Please model this.
Amino acid sequence: MTGLRVAIGALGATGFVAGLLIAPPAVLAPLFVCGIAAFVVAAGCLAADLLPLRPVYAATSGLALIAAVLMAVGGQVSRTLAVVAALALVLLSAAPRLIRLRG
Amino acid sequence: MAVRTPLERRLRWAVVGLAMLCAALVLVVVAVLVYWKLYLLSPGSDPFSRGPFVIRLGQTSAQLAWTLPGGRKVELVATAPDGTTATARDGRFTGLEPGVRYLWTASVGGVGRAAGSFHTAPASPDAPVTFAAIGDYGSGTDHEWAVGRTLASEQPDFVVTAGDNSYLVGASVLLDRNIFRPLHDVMLEAPLYATMGEHDLFYSNGAAVADALHLPNHAGRYAVDYGPVQVVLLGLDDGPAEVAFARRALARPGPRVRFVVLHRPVQPGDDILPLLRRAHVAAVIAGHLHRYERRLVGGIPEFVVGTSGEGPGAAAFTKRSSDAIVSLLNFGSLRVTVTAAGVNYQFVDERGRVLDQYTKG
Model:
């Protein structure tokens, strides 16, 4: 499910760049849209990692779900929180590949 | 990675698609719930189980009371027309200006939960004063609610009641239904100075009603001064104890216009009449008889306001007084306006019509 992971990474990167470049409150809209989309994609990714079960992959997908929610709504509390969540999405989407390369 | 058949791959994609669809549905449900909570649900219910309502008014002070479960703190602020504000301590405002209508707000937890206004007693003896009188009202009927609405629209300085504040008895459990809800709007604006009728005294000897309305005593026997006006409330009738109290209260110098309020109407030949004449009492206001009547008893105008909520009842107990100048069965209240020129009395029915009017210079 590399395509889904790439999509998550792309959404995270978009949110990250938007969080850095756009001032509040205008930044809330792209963060929200990217977060919602990432949440849906991460759910599919998690399902794929559960059938068959790949624990590390599934863990990163589960964390990506949480990061997506944080990116979507965290901007209401703090822009930093949303930007960190977006960065986490990028890292989590790349984590399985990095783990496999190191292994 | 294990080699999968095309069918397994398609099934896996189907599961992935299903998971994404479920996630989207979760988001839709969350969005609906958030929208429901933010925009569709009614605001939080009134935290006060009773009041706040005005219980005392002076020239420079005002007192409000309330019942708030949980002992939460209430912040009361009164604002004058010129923008100056006063903060109440234990429900009591001090240092107010005489003859000014203040807007007050009661906040709980930083949110304004109730608001009203009150008019401090004027310092000038010639200042106009308007008050309302009701009697035999506390039944929670549509008529009492209607009378309560007309009272609130009049914004009287205060309201006096001629007793029978709660039917059939003055039990604590009935008082919200019979007094505080129907008269809620007017009690935001004006104190309710009540005296006692049989129905109030029958249960707990008047204690429940008196305590709920923060009256000085359970018999409903006390005097109120408001600017140039004095109202002497006697209680059930004009017996010897009541006459003695009236003698003391009416002897006090100061008020320009005096009224006596009691439950049972004063009758010709009663012992109190010479005292009322000597004290130049402007009028007697009574209840008991479930009619509105205007009479002249021993030379003193007497207004019976017994139709402010409870129905007229059996004809045998609601007979017109033989000496009544006006006698009506309409539900309503008496509006009394005191000016330097004299006193005007208007009987206003539950539909806002003035059915009787009388002026005395």
